[in-house]
Write a structure and sequence with these properties.
Elements lengths: L1 H16 L5 H17 L1 H8 L5 H15 L3 H12 L6 H15 L2 E8 L5 H15 L2 E8 L7 E5 L2 E4 L2 H13 L2
Parallel strand pairs: 1-2
Antiparallel strand pairs: 1-3, 3-4
Helix pairs in contact: 1-6, 2-6, 4-5
Amino acid sequence: MKNRILAERYINALINSIPEAKVTTDLPIASQVIKDVLENKAEYNKMVSPFIHKHNKKIRMAALVKKNGASQTVESFFYLIITKNRIGLLSDFGEMILEKIKEMKNEVAVLIETATVLDTSGSTSLIATLETKTNKKLNPTYLVNTDILGGFKATIKNTIYDGSVQHSIEKVRQKFNHR
């Protein structure tokens, strides 16, 4: 959780330092640089090694940044995380950049739990209803939860939309108890 908060602060600072017209191009490039480092185990190990001087890490990073055509702002971001010894958080930075890109496209992930596997029309209908309610483009992940008798539970960030049978019964129970 601490790394996620830290990653969000750094990525928000990066976004705020990029000219608005270049954010949609610079963020994917920054994401690609991170992916390149993480996928090359030898390169990653050199970047996180305490035995390699920060100056040498910056030289290595400059080569990756230039290879991907990143802006001076993105290059400065990578220099900053090397200087501040935050290079070990690269995967967190990468995840946060992908989240921010989705937010800019007004897309969010949704976890949909149901008692059984939904057919295509059921999932399409449910997603359309949730997209209308949230005013977001949803990227669903489906999970069969045998604890749900019927209906669904949809989790979007910190919000739960509970359309389960249990929830409906509980609402009816509460109405009768308050009379």
